[in-house]
Structures are given as C-alpha cells and as structure tokens.
Amino acid sequence: MSLPENTTVLIVGAGPAGLTTALALAHNRCYDFVIVDAVVEGHNSSRAISIHSATVEALASINAADGILSQAIKGKSIRITSRSSQIFEAKFDPLKNHSAHPYALYIPQNVTELMLVQKLQSLGVQVQRPHRVVGMKQNENDSRITDVSFEDGQVIRARYIIGADGARSIIRSIAGIEFSDPEGPNPANIILDRMIFADVTFEPEPVGPLTLEGHLNGTVFSGNFFLLTPFGNRFNAELMQDGKPITKSIFRVGCAIPSEKGEPPHAPPKEYIQDMIDAYGPACITSDPSLNPTPVKVDQLIWSTRFTTRCAIADRTFTRLGAAVFLIGDAAHIHSPAGGQGMNLAMRDAIFLADAVTKHIQASAGNPDVDDTILQEFADTRRARALEIIGFSKRLLKIASLSYDAYAWWMPCSAASIRDLILRILGGFDFVQSKVAWGLSGLGRR
After folding, report:
1. pTM surpassing 0.85?
2. What pLDDT sits at residue 428?
3. Disulfide-capable partner of 38 in 95, 106, 132, 220 (CB 3.0 to 4.6 Å)?
C-alpha cells in the first residue's frame, strides 16, 4: 500500500500506545497523521490483561473507552493467597470515592487493540501495514522535517515522529538513544528475572473462589509467586487459534521461574505449564491429589510466552533529528509485570503526548520558530512518572519473591512468613485495602 509523501505526525507502531496516540490526536482534531506497523496484522494473543482506573478515565476523556468497557470483565479485587488459603484482598469498590470507574478491567490485549482499531476505523483512519522503518535523516530543505525511509523504498517526510514500536524500537535505535536499567548495568537484588504466561483451559474445569470471574489472584510460594485470572467464556472467540473452537472457561496463568529451573522455553509447551502449576500454583488448579481433592490438568494450551522481568528506560524520550522524535510505551520504558502497570502507563503517556504535540502544532502555526518547551516538559514529566512506576514494580516484585526459609537456626521465622502475617492483620482494615487499591489504580500517578 502506498504511503503519503508528507505528514505532520508519523506514528510508528500500532500496539496500545500507538493506537491510543492516534485516537487522542483525532480527538484533538489533529487529523494530519499516519500510523504504520511492521507486521501484516496485530498479534492474536492476550498478553497484557489489566486496565486500571486511571487509564479507563484517560480513555474516556478521548471517547475511546466504550468499546473496551463493553467487552471487559470489571474486576472486583486483587487477592494474595497461599496455595490453600487467602492472605489478603484489596477490593476496588472504595475507588468510587475518587473515580467514575472504581474497578480494574480484565481484558486480553488483542481485544483491547481490536476495540481501539475499530474506534479508529469509525473515524476514517486505517493502520498502514506492513511498513517497516529502516532509516531517518534530516530533510535537506527543511531543518524541522525528517525523511523516514521504509524497507519497501517508500519515504515519508514528517514533522513529528512517535516511536511506539516496542522494546526493540527501531526509532530509538536510529535516534541513538540509550536504553538501560536506571540502577545501572548490574542492578542489585534481581531474584526472579524470568516469567512465563499462558492462556489455558482445564479438564475438569476447576471450582472454588479463585476460579470466579472478577478477581486477579496472586499465590505466593517460597521465593516465588503465581498469577491466576479467570476469563470464563468471555473471550473464547477472540482467543481462538487456528480455527480450533474453545468451549471451556479460559484462565490466564503466570509464574516466575527461579534460576535453578533453567531457561524456560520460548513458547512453553503444555507439559511445562502443567509442571509449573503443580509446583507453584494454587491448590484448586493442580493435578496433585495431595493438594487438590479433585485434580485438574491443563486441557488446551491456547497461547504461551516467556519474558524477562528486567527494567529499562530510555535516557531521553524526546529528541530532534530534524523532526521532533518521541518514544512512548515499551520503546520508552519496560519493567516487571508486577502490579500490571506497563500498558497502562503507555496509554496514558500517549494521551498526554497527543495533547502536547497538538499544542505545539498550534503554536507553530503562528510562529514557525517556536521553541520546544511544551514538548520537553511533556518528556521530562512522563519520564519521571516512568521512573516512579519502575520503582513501584521493583518493590512489588521484591515483596512477592520473599522466601519462607528461616533466617537462622536461632530465628525460626522467615521474611515471607512475616509478610503474610502483616498482610493478614492489615487486611482487616478498610483503609489499608483502600490504600492498596489506590496504589494499583494509577489515580495518584496519572
């Protein structure tokens, strides 16, 4: 497909960050933009599943929340459990004092992207695929324009370039922007640096409180944690692979992989997922009869992946190569999935960026030599927010990875048992539950 020769804004990447940027620009009545992606179609896998209160509010502010709200499961709480009993529950209901959206939404990322794409299409905008960026250079005739070249030989001249092209961002690479852990090349206390996630069905279907829709369940184990989120039958059609129908309830499972287990497979097979469930999962979904009176086994493996929990941030998220070049989403920052903050931060960044770019375009209309104060302020503010989220996710991961091993023979208690005791006690206080829900919601760090 032919691309236009010129555009004011070029968005590279059509994941949640890029799509949200396009929607926010359109909401601001800035329609001179092109959004491209390197792949033929979006990923048909669930990946990120949590959209928090602050992000729902942000999407609603650009009239982009309705489709997602119509499809998503409205989460009631996040629970922390042992393999056999509940330790703590943070209910989202207290957020009604602060937001019109007092819940987390649980929805597979591919469904989120589908809703955003459909909203864009209703505005007459199409994602241009497949177009892979291979180069950028300052335009010879206009120092505020960059010529962006693509693998197929086409070139677009753009005044603003938004790199929303993921953790391996080509925009970041061409711009020569460093991407590293804010604590340095060898950050301390990395305990659980690898994780697996999968969408599965079970036979027979498990029963119990942890299998009910509307709750994200985190099971703590010695030095490890396991995540379980029931989808019910809500997304069976959207998650179907290779035309194979899904008739049973789908569950998202996730597990950190201790280093002694070795490197997990790229796409862990059903047997590997089963072993991790039996080793670390809550009793109600294991095949171990000593833990589960009604043993269950993984029946259908719909999708699986592995990834590292490393953190990294771009040393700057705004620069100039002629055009103003920005990084958002995973191109700008990555961190562990603890707290489910990554996609949320990306989508809120996108909306703030669209506002800053629109203001700069309007200011430039009356003064072509307008400075970049608006753009730099955006970049500085959002990078500071990303650093805050990275620190937050690192703390959550550290707490989740505490061990039940005793400190010493003369102190027969452990860090994990102390954590569990504190959580059990504090969980009885409404204000503690509210504070945890508030921290996860993003409402205090939009």
Report:
1. yes
2. 85
3. 132
